[in-house]
Design goal:
mainly alpha; elongated; 0% strand
Length: 409
């Protein structure tokens, strides 16, 4: 049983506290990277009123006599989880925030899937299958990751409550993250083909190929999710300290292949799509005034009407493609803004642990909140920017309202 310090005087060295520190900190010494880890491991040995500074000063002031007394402490062959102990202080406010995130993430992404499934016109567009797949990856965040954040925020805000929970969270986090960015890559490729080769798009993007692409996306996500729990370190380390893989080569390769390379490719592709869409708009705007005059300079009403219809139809097609590209650009930009900070922090933590000096609120915002918050935003992006989605969403709400009133009646 873990002992708690009964006196706040730093001058008093308590044998039970010293032994507790030895039992909780020593087994994890190889995976400790900063003072925050030391504090979190030693925290259960002290009373809840002790501050961060008091605990670190106590550990630093442990003198030679105290070190000798540690030799008589009982050994602990099986380290216990350091967060699932009495005395930990939770954060009800943060837990409430995560509950709201859960409701929005699950409700929003489930709505995206239902709108696409129930609207035949949306369902027949193959690109919407990729959007539904992206919504499923975001739905996973709400269903499988946010509940852990809620539980963690009520238990001292760490994911080291147990070894199983740590591995579970790492696996599901990796699967949803890889699935999200790979789905975005597939969506970008689909829109790129539609803009670059509009006349052969239907021959290139077929229903069979779209199913294969979605299958590859999820196979890749499951594969990397499984690999995230392999111990890539040369030294044996326990992930219950920070629930963080500390092998710098693995982390660098992972984020380069999974995040940075796809981000660069998508950025280049979307830049090209924007250039093509703007060029088409300029060409059409320049050509439309000429439709009122025939080749011999005389007014030909029939000819001008036909030309006008052709250009209007072409303009509408380009406009639809441009709107689709614009939506994907916003979705892509939002994803990068939400995930870029945590990838930079992960690389810094791996290569230069002392360089990461984030405060608690900064860590919570950049590492925990932003990536998960990304899974709640796509629904609002579609609702604001996609007129067809809004129309079918209203139909779905109306149908649900009618079903509820008839059921009650």
């Amino acid at each position: 049983m873990l002992a708690f310090r009964a006196n706040s005087s730093l001058a008093m060295l308590n044998e039970s506290v010293d032994c507790c520190i030895k039992m909780n900190v020593a087994p994890y010494h190889k995976s400790i990277n900063n003072l925050t880890d030391v504090y979190l491991l030693a925290r259960p040995c002290f009373s809840p009123k002790e501050s961060f500074v008091d605990i670190l000063l106590y550990i630093m002031n442990m003198n030679h006599d105290a070190q000798k007394r540690l030799e008589s402490c009982p050994t602990q062959t099986s380290p216990q989880p350091v967060c699932n102990v009495q005395g930990n202080q939770g954060s009800p406010g943060l837990a409430t925030f995560w509950v709201l995130v859960l409701l929005v993430a699950v409700g929003g992404n489930l709505t995206v899937c239902l709108v696409i499934y129930n609207a035949q016109m949306l369902r027949n567009i193959l690109s919407n299958h990729f959007i539904a797949s992206l919504a499923v990856s975001d739905l996973m965040v709400g269903l499988f990751l946010v509940p852990v954040q809620i539980y963690s925020s009520l238990n001292f805000g760490r994911l080291c409550i147990s070894r199983f929970l740590c591995h579970y969270y790492k696996t599901m986090d990796s699967i949803s993250f890889v699935a999200s960015i790979t789905n975005l890559l597939v969506i970008t490729a689909d829109r790129f083909i539609a803009v670059e080769w509009p006349y052969t798009y239907q021959d290139i993007v077929t229903k069979t190929r779209s199913k294969i692409a979605i299958g590859v996306v999820w196979f890749n996500a499951l594969l990397i999710g499984g690999l995230s729990n392999v111990n890539w370190s040369d030294e044996s380390s326990d992930t219950t300290v920070a629930c963080w893989t500390d092998n710098k080569i693995y982390i660098t390769l992972l984020f380069t292949i999974v995040f940075y390379a796809p981000t660069v490719l998508m950025g280049i592709a979307q830049g090209r799509m924007l250039f093509i869409a703007l060029r088409h708009s300029r060409d059409i705007n320049a050509a439309i005034p000429m439709t009122a005059v025939s080749k011999d300079g005389s007014n030909d009403e029939i000819s001008s009407i036909n030309h006008a219809k052709q250009f209007v139809n072409r303009f509408k097609k380009v406009l639809r493609e441009y709107r689709a590209v614009k939506i994907i650009m916003v979705v892509f930009g939002t994803f990068v803004l939400c995930w870029l900070p945590v990838t930079i922090i992960a690389l810094l933590h791996a290569w230069c642990p002392g360089c990461v000096t984030l405060k608690t609120w900064q860590t919570t915002l950049l590492v925990d909140v932003l990536p998960v918050l990304n899974s709640t935003l796509n629904f609002f992006i579609y609702s604001v920017m996609n007129r067809e989605f809004r129309k079918n969403f209203k139909r779905l709400l109306k149908r649900a309202y009618m079903w509820c009133t008839n059921d009650i009646g």
